[in-house]
Amino acid sequence: MFTGIVQGMARVVSIEEKPNFRTHVVELPDAMLPGLETGASVAHNGCCLTVTEINGDRVSFDLMKETLRITNLGEIQPGDKVNVERAAKFNDEIGGHLMSGHVMTTAEITKILASENNRQVWFRVQHPELMKYILHKGYIGIDGISLTVGEVTATKFCVHLIPETLQRTTLGERRIGQRVNIEIDPQTQAIVDTVERVLATRGLNDAQAPSV
What is this protein's function per UniProt (predicted)? Predict the structure, then answer.
Protein backbone atom coordinates (compact mmCIF):
# COMPACT_ATOMS: atom_id res chain seq x y z
CA MET A 1 0.00 0.00 0.00
CA PHE A 2 1.01 3.61 -0.60
CA THR A 3 -0.12 6.96 0.80
CA GLY A 4 0.05 9.13 -2.33
CA ILE A 5 2.64 11.40 -0.67
CA VAL A 6 5.44 11.44 -3.22
CA GLN A 7 8.84 11.03 -1.56
CA GLY A 8 10.85 12.35 -4.47
CA MET A 9 11.49 12.33 -8.18
CA ALA A 10 13.83 9.76 -9.71
CA ARG A 11 15.62 10.14 -13.03
CA VAL A 12 15.49 7.19 -15.41
CA VAL A 13 19.11 6.53 -16.39
CA SER A 14 18.72 3.54 -18.73
CA ILE A 15 16.11 1.32 -20.37
CA GLU A 16 16.55 -2.20 -21.70
CA GLU A 17 13.87 -3.19 -24.20
CA LYS A 18 12.77 -6.80 -24.67
CA PRO A 19 9.74 -8.30 -26.46
CA ASN A 20 6.67 -7.11 -24.51
CA PHE A 21 8.95 -6.35 -21.56
CA ARG A 22 11.17 -3.56 -20.30
CA THR A 23 13.69 -3.05 -17.54
CA HIS A 24 14.40 0.50 -16.47
CA VAL A 25 16.97 1.79 -14.01
CA VAL A 26 16.39 4.90 -11.91
CA GLU A 27 18.51 7.01 -9.58
CA LEU A 28 16.60 6.92 -6.32
CA PRO A 29 16.96 9.84 -3.89
CA ASP A 30 19.41 9.03 -1.07
CA ALA A 31 16.66 9.30 1.57
CA MET A 32 14.82 6.37 -0.04
CA LEU A 33 17.77 3.94 -0.07
CA PRO A 34 18.17 2.87 3.61
CA GLY A 35 16.72 -0.61 4.12
CA LEU A 36 15.80 -1.03 0.45
CA GLU A 37 16.08 -4.65 -0.70
CA THR A 38 15.33 -6.62 -3.84
CA GLY A 39 11.67 -7.60 -3.85
CA ALA A 40 10.58 -4.33 -2.24
CA SER A 41 7.73 -2.32 -3.75
CA VAL A 42 8.28 1.21 -5.06
CA ALA A 43 5.60 3.21 -6.85
CA HIS A 44 6.63 4.90 -10.12
CA ASN A 45 4.09 7.50 -11.21
CA GLY A 46 1.66 5.63 -8.97
CA CYS A 47 2.36 2.19 -10.46
CA CYS A 48 3.64 -0.43 -8.02
CA LEU A 49 6.93 -1.94 -9.27
CA THR A 50 9.28 -4.47 -7.68
CA VAL A 51 12.98 -3.87 -7.08
CA THR A 52 15.01 -6.41 -9.09
CA GLU A 53 18.57 -5.11 -8.58
CA ILE A 54 20.37 -2.48 -6.51
CA ASN A 55 23.70 -0.88 -7.46
CA GLY A 56 24.30 2.04 -5.14
CA ASP A 57 21.60 4.60 -5.88
CA ARG A 58 20.79 2.95 -9.21
CA VAL A 59 17.83 0.61 -8.82
CA SER A 60 16.32 -1.66 -11.48
CA PHE A 61 12.66 -2.48 -12.06
CA ASP A 62 10.91 -4.77 -14.57
CA LEU A 63 7.81 -3.65 -16.45
CA MET A 64 5.64 -6.31 -18.08
CA LYS A 65 3.37 -5.97 -21.11
CA GLU A 66 0.23 -5.12 -19.13
CA THR A 67 2.01 -2.35 -17.22
CA LEU A 68 3.33 -0.85 -20.45
CA ARG A 69 -0.17 -1.03 -22.00
CA ILE A 70 -2.18 0.52 -19.19
CA THR A 71 0.19 3.14 -17.77
CA ASN A 72 2.33 5.99 -19.09
CA LEU A 73 5.55 4.21 -18.09
CA GLY A 74 5.91 2.80 -21.59
CA GLU A 75 6.41 6.38 -22.82
CA ILE A 76 9.30 7.06 -20.43
CA GLN A 77 12.71 7.72 -22.00
CA PRO A 78 16.18 7.91 -20.41
CA GLY A 79 16.52 11.30 -18.72
CA ASP A 80 12.83 11.53 -17.82
CA LYS A 81 11.75 11.75 -14.19
CA VAL A 82 9.13 9.71 -12.35
CA ASN A 83 7.41 10.29 -9.02
CA VAL A 84 8.52 7.66 -6.51
CA GLU A 85 7.20 6.43 -3.17
CA ARG A 86 8.24 3.40 -1.14
CA ALA A 87 5.55 1.14 0.30
CA ALA A 88 3.99 2.40 3.51
CA LYS A 89 4.89 0.82 6.85
CA PHE A 90 2.72 0.33 9.91
CA ASN A 91 2.67 3.51 12.03
CA ASP A 92 3.52 5.70 9.00
CA GLU A 93 1.60 8.95 8.82
CA ILE A 94 -1.12 8.79 6.16
CA GLY A 95 -0.95 12.31 4.78
CA GLY A 96 -2.81 11.48 1.57
CA HIS A 97 -5.13 8.49 1.13
CA LEU A 98 -4.48 4.76 0.90
CA MET A 99 -3.52 3.70 -2.61
CA SER A 100 -2.80 0.24 -4.00
CA GLY A 101 -0.38 1.20 -6.77
CA HIS A 102 -2.70 -0.43 -9.33
CA VAL A 103 -3.21 2.11 -12.10
CA MET A 104 -6.61 1.75 -13.76
CA THR A 105 -6.18 4.02 -16.77
CA THR A 106 -4.50 7.19 -18.00
CA ALA A 107 -5.83 10.69 -18.56
CA GLU A 108 -4.79 13.40 -20.99
CA ILE A 109 -4.08 16.92 -19.77
CA THR A 110 -6.47 19.18 -21.69
CA LYS A 111 -6.09 22.56 -19.98
CA ILE A 112 -3.73 24.27 -17.54
CA LEU A 113 -4.78 27.49 -15.79
CA ALA A 114 -1.91 29.09 -13.88
CA SER A 115 -2.13 31.88 -11.30
CA GLU A 116 0.39 33.34 -8.89
CA ASN A 117 0.07 30.74 -6.14
CA ASN A 118 -1.64 27.71 -7.64
CA ARG A 119 -2.43 25.87 -10.82
CA GLN A 120 -5.65 24.32 -12.06
CA VAL A 121 -5.18 21.32 -14.33
CA TRP A 122 -7.95 19.65 -16.34
CA PHE A 123 -7.89 16.00 -17.42
CA ARG A 124 -9.84 13.80 -19.84
CA VAL A 125 -9.90 10.14 -18.76
CA GLN A 126 -9.07 7.58 -21.45
CA HIS A 127 -12.04 5.42 -20.44
CA PRO A 128 -15.10 7.68 -19.95
CA GLU A 129 -17.01 4.97 -18.08
CA LEU A 130 -14.69 5.58 -15.12
CA MET A 131 -15.98 9.14 -14.68
CA LYS A 132 -18.74 7.82 -12.39
CA TYR A 133 -16.04 7.17 -9.78
CA ILE A 134 -14.58 10.70 -9.96
CA LEU A 135 -16.59 12.89 -7.63
CA HIS A 136 -16.34 16.51 -6.52
CA LYS A 137 -14.11 16.66 -3.40
CA GLY A 138 -13.33 12.96 -3.72
CA TYR A 139 -9.85 11.41 -3.71
CA ILE A 140 -7.89 10.47 -6.81
CA GLY A 141 -4.33 9.34 -7.53
CA ILE A 142 -2.58 11.18 -10.39
CA ASP A 143 0.91 9.89 -11.25
CA GLY A 144 1.08 8.58 -7.70
CA ILE A 145 0.01 11.84 -6.05
CA SER A 146 -2.94 11.86 -3.67
CA LEU A 147 -5.15 14.76 -4.75
CA THR A 148 -8.64 16.10 -4.14
CA VAL A 149 -10.93 16.36 -7.14
CA GLY A 150 -12.10 19.87 -7.99
CA GLU A 151 -14.75 20.48 -10.62
CA VAL A 152 -16.24 17.57 -12.57
CA THR A 153 -18.07 17.54 -15.90
CA ALA A 154 -19.48 14.63 -17.90
CA THR A 155 -16.10 13.90 -19.51
CA LYS A 156 -13.44 15.86 -17.58
CA PHE A 157 -12.28 16.78 -14.10
CA CYS A 158 -9.75 19.16 -12.58
CA VAL A 159 -7.45 19.41 -9.57
CA HIS A 160 -5.88 22.43 -7.89
CA LEU A 161 -2.13 22.26 -7.26
CA ILE A 162 -0.23 24.28 -4.67
CA PRO A 163 3.40 25.40 -5.22
CA GLU A 164 4.72 22.58 -2.99
CA THR A 165 3.13 19.91 -5.19
CA LEU A 166 4.40 21.58 -8.34
CA GLN A 167 7.94 21.72 -6.94
CA ARG A 168 8.13 18.21 -5.46
CA THR A 169 6.45 16.22 -8.24
CA THR A 170 6.49 15.88 -12.01
CA LEU A 171 3.13 17.64 -12.31
CA GLY A 172 5.03 20.92 -12.24
CA GLU A 173 6.60 19.96 -15.59
CA ARG A 174 3.55 18.42 -17.24
CA ARG A 175 2.16 20.00 -20.39
CA ILE A 176 -1.10 19.90 -22.36
CA GLY A 177 -1.48 16.66 -24.30
CA GLN A 178 0.67 14.57 -21.97
CA ARG A 179 -0.75 11.51 -20.22
CA VAL A 180 -0.83 10.82 -16.49
CA ASN A 181 -1.61 7.62 -14.59
CA ILE A 182 -4.93 7.46 -12.78
CA GLU A 183 -5.84 5.37 -9.73
CA ILE A 184 -9.46 5.63 -8.67
CA ASP A 185 -10.13 5.73 -4.93
CA PRO A 186 -11.12 2.11 -4.14
CA GLN A 187 -13.60 3.11 -1.42
CA THR A 188 -15.43 5.41 -3.83
CA GLN A 189 -15.47 2.65 -6.44
CA ALA A 190 -16.85 0.13 -3.96
CA ILE A 191 -19.63 2.48 -2.84
CA VAL A 192 -20.67 3.40 -6.39
CA ASP A 193 -20.66 -0.23 -7.56
CA THR A 194 -22.64 -1.37 -4.50
CA VAL A 195 -25.29 1.31 -5.00
CA GLU A 196 -25.59 0.40 -8.68
CA ARG A 197 -26.07 -3.28 -7.85
CA VAL A 198 -28.70 -2.52 -5.22
CA LEU A 199 -30.62 -0.24 -7.57
CA ALA A 200 -30.40 -2.79 -10.37
CA THR A 201 -31.75 -5.50 -8.07
CA ARG A 202 -34.61 -3.29 -6.92
CA GLY A 203 -35.46 -2.46 -10.50
CA LEU A 204 -35.55 -6.15 -11.40
CA ASN A 205 -37.71 -6.97 -8.40
CA ASP A 206 -40.12 -4.15 -9.19
CA ALA A 207 -40.41 -5.37 -12.79
CA GLN A 208 -41.14 -8.90 -11.59
CA ALA A 209 -43.70 -7.82 -8.99
CA PRO A 210 -47.31 -8.54 -10.00
CA SER A 211 -49.47 -5.54 -10.74
CA VAL A 212 -52.38 -4.89 -8.36
Answer: Catalyzes the dismutation of two molecules of 6,7-dimethyl-8-ribityllumazine, resulting in the formation of riboflavin and 5-amino-6-(D-ribitylamino)uracil.
